[in-house]
Amino acid sequence: MTWDSISAWWWPYLFILLAGWLPTDVWRWIGVLIGGKVREDSEALVIVRAVATALVAGVIAQLILYPSGSLAESSVFLRIGAAAAGFFAYLSLGRRVIVGVIVAEIILIAGLVLA
To answer: What domain of life does the native source organism fall in (predicted)?
Structure first.
């Protein structure tokens, strides 16, 4: 089943619900159910954190090295610079993820507009 399988107006919304929200939400509920029973320093939680961090790093690397859409029109140096500036802002301004994301986005957008 693909995005173009059905041509009804409601199909994209159902597709997003079935393919995007439902599978993720199931894992969130499982995490809520067993999360209270797992110690924070347990080996299982360390493994989960490591896998989650590796997945995020992989997605970021893919966006920087093999971008698609309008991001592909930007220079690799701009993408690397924006990521580095966002990481530096994250580290230096209180380790807040939102700060790093906003700084990286501002640099990326400014670079795309000025280019």
So the answer is: Bacteria
